[in-house]
């Protein structure tokens, strides 16, 4: 399966999102605005919004935060690793505490 890597995240193609939708989703998950994404991809902000609208429709959500959360839940995007080194109190990565920071 092909992937797109950006912003410390991995997006999986072949799971319902077009490549450009996935690029926009990864940027949103990294906290970028439509203007910032458009500048980075060399397209108009309206094009970014159109891609995100298409993806929110596909995933059945309304807000960007819901989009990111649903994409993580479905395995469409995953984190490549923690930006922080594991310390002595490091917890197992499989342990979840119900908190999502998007």
Describe this protein's structure.
It is built from 4 helices and 3 strands. The chain has 102 residues and is of the alpha+beta class. The protein has one domain (3-79): Winged helix-like DNA-binding domain superfamily/Winged helix DNA-binding domain (Arc Repressor Mutant, subunit A), CATH 1.10.10.10. A hairpin with a 2-residue loop joins strand 1 and strand 2. Helix 1 (19-29) packs across helix 4 (64-73) and helix 3 (45-59) crosses helix 4 (64-73). This is Regulatory protein, luxR family. One of its GO terms (molecular function) is DNA binding. Keywords: DNA-binding, Transcription, Transcription regulation. Residues 83-102 are annotated as: Disordered.
Fold blueprint:
Layout: E1 3-6, E2 9-12, H1 19-29, H2 34-41, H3 45-59, H4 64-73, E3 77-79
Antiparallel strand pairs: 1-2, 2-3
SSE string, helix = H, strand = E? EEHHHHE
Number of helices: 4
Number of strands: 3
The CA-CA distance between the termini, in Å, is 25 Å
- CATH topology (level 3) name: Arc Repressor Mutant, subunit A
Tell me roughly what share of residues is in helical segments. 40-55%
Which descriptor suits the 3D outline? globular
Reading side by side through the largest sheet, how are the strands ordered?
1-2-3
Q: How confident overall, as mean pLDDT?
A: 84
Rg: 14 Å
According to CATH, what is the class?
A: Mainly Alpha
Regarding quaternary structure, how should these chains be classified? single chain
**Stretches with pLDDT under 50, minimum 5 residues:** 82-97
Number of domains: 1
Biggest beta-sheet profile? 3 strands, antiparallel
Keywords: DNA-binding, Transcription, Transcription regulation
Biased composition (Basic and acidic residues): 90-102
Region (Disordered): 83-102
Domain HTH luxR-type: 12-75
């Amino acid at each position: 399966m092909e992937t797109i890597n950006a912003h410390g995240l991995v997006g999986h193609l072949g799971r319902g999102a077009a490549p450009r939708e996935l690029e926009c989703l990864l940027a949103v998950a990294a906290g970028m605005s439509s203007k910032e994404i458009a500048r980075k991809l060399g397209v108009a902000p309206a094009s970014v919004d159109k891609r995100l609208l298409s993806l929110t429709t596909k995933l059945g959500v309304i807000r960007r935060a819901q989009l990111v959360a649903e994409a993580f839940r479905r395995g469409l995007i995953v984190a490549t690793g923690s930006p922080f080194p594991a310390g002595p109190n490091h917890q197992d990565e499989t342990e979840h505490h119900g908190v999502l920071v998007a």
